[in-house]
Amino acid sequence: MALTVLISNQKGGVGKTTTAVNLATALAAVKKKVLLIDLDPQSNATTGLGIYSTKNGSTYDLMIQSKNLNGIILQTSIPGLTLAPSNINLIGAEIELVQAENRETILRNALFQYNKRFDYIIIDSPPSMGILTLNGLVAADGVIVPLQCEYYAMEGLNYLINSVKRVKNSFNPTLRIFGILLTMHDKRNALSLSVENDVRTTMGKQVFNTVIPRNTRISEAPSHGKPVLIYDVKCVGACAYMELAKEFLERQKKWQIN
Ligand SMILES: Nc1ncnc2c1ncn2[C@@H]1O[C@H](COP(=O)(O)OP(=O)(O)OP(=O)(O)O)[C@@H](O)[C@H]1O
Ligand SMILES: [Mg+2]
User: Fold this and answer.
1) Neighbour count for residue 216 (Cβ, 10 Å)
2) Would you tell me how many other CB atoms lie within 10 Å of the CB of residue 170?
3) pLDDT at 258 over 60
C-alpha cells in the first residue's frame, strides 16, 4: 500500500512545491515508485518537472470526476516518478465542487484503486485551506509542513494543526503530522537560528532534524524544468533533500511500529 503524504501550509512561498518535487525525486532516486500529485492551480510542481502541456487532462479533470487517475498521469523524465499534472483550470474546482456530493472524499476515492501501484504518493497543495487542501487532508496518511525560517514562521501553524485535528475527527481518523520541515535556513543569519530555536522548543520531535538551507541552485532549478536533485545533484540544497528523504524513511519505520 502506498503511503500518502500531503505537503501543506496555507502560508504562501514557504517551500511546499520545492519540498514536494524534491522529496518525490529523492524517493524515486532510491528506487521507490512515486506518484506526485499537483493539487495547486499554480501548477508549479508540474512546470518544475518540465511539463508544460496537460492535453490528456489534469487534476482538474480528476477532481470534477470527468477522468480517472490513469487518464491523466504522465511518466516524467525521472525513472520511477509519475506525475498527476495540474493546470489553471483547477481554480474552477474550488467553486464547482461547492455543491458536489461527497466533495471532501473525491481525491481519496480517486486514489483508492491505485494504492498498490506506488510506494509513495506525494501531494503538493495550494497556499489556502479550501476544498483542494481538504481533499488532500482526507486522502493523506500524514502531512509534512514546511516552515520558512523567517519572521511569522509559526503563523498559521496552529490553524493547520487544528485543521488536521478536525479532519482526524471526521473523515480521516488516522491522519497525522509526519513532520515540520524548516526551509530556506541561513545559518549566518541570527533570525534563521532564532526561528529554528523557537520552532524546535515549541514543536519538539515533530520537527525534522534535517534543515533545508537557502540555496540559489534550489531557486534556479524550476526555471530549467528540473528538480534541484537533477539540476545540480552535488549542491547543498540537493544534499539536504536527499538527507530529508533518508530521515523520512527512517521515521516511517517508527510510525509503522507505533
Ligand atoms: N531552500 C531554498 N532556497 C532558495 N530558494 C528556495 C528554497 N526553497 C524554495 N525556494 C524558492 O522560493 C520560492 C517559493 O518556493 P515554493 O514555490 O516551493 O513555495 P510554495 O510554498 O510552494 O509556494 P506557494 O504557496 O505559492 O505554492 C520559489 O521561487 C522557490 O524556488
Ligand atoms: Mg507551491
Assistant:
1) 11
2) 12
3) no
Handedness of CA 24, 26, 28, 30 (dihedral sign): negative
- Count CB atoms within 10 A of the CB of residue 190: 8
Q: Which atom of ligand 1 is nearest to the CA of 213?
A: 1
Q: What atom of ligand 1 comes closest to residue 18's alpha carbon? A: 18
Nearest Cα to Cα of residue 38 among 78, 14, 65, 69: 69
**Other beta carbons within 10 Å of 55:** 6
Q: Looking up cell 534541484, which residue turns up? A: 228
Domains of the chain by start residue, with CATH = 3-257 (3.40.50.300)
Say what the pTM is: 0.97
- Pairing of the two strands 120-124 and 34-38: parallel
Query: What residue owns the CA closest to ligand 1's atom 30?
Result: 219
Confidence band for 257, pLDDT divided at 50, 70 and 90: low
Find out whether the beta carbon of 163 lies less than 6 Å from any atom of ligand 1.
no
